[in-house]
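We were asked to recover a plausible sequence for a given structure. The inputs and outputs are reproduced exactly as logged, with field labels preserved.

PROBLEM: sequence recovery
POSITIONS: 73
GIVEN STRUCTURE:
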């Protein structure tokens, strides 16, 4: 069975999103990456279908971190 069929683990999803965003933006502050990962996953955590929460949350977190880095420039 896949992890999806075993249920949605919010903390694991946050950690996964955070890890992938850190790889994409290594110069970003760890606190910003974490906060944006949490915010993005929280936004979709109550969705009735959670199969794509990690993908959608990662996209949102990447965009937010990119905006934060752009505002520092």
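RECOVERED SEQUENCE:
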């Amino acid at each position: 069975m896949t992890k999806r069929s075993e249920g949605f683990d919010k903390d694991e999803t946050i950690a996964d999103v955070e890890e992938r965003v850190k790889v994409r933006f290594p110069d970003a502050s760890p606190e910003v990456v974490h906060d944006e990962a949490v915010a993005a996953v929280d936004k979709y955590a109550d969705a009735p279908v959670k199969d794509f929460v990690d993908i959608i949350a990662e996209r949102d977190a990447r965009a937010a971190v990119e905006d934060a880095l752009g505002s520092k420039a």
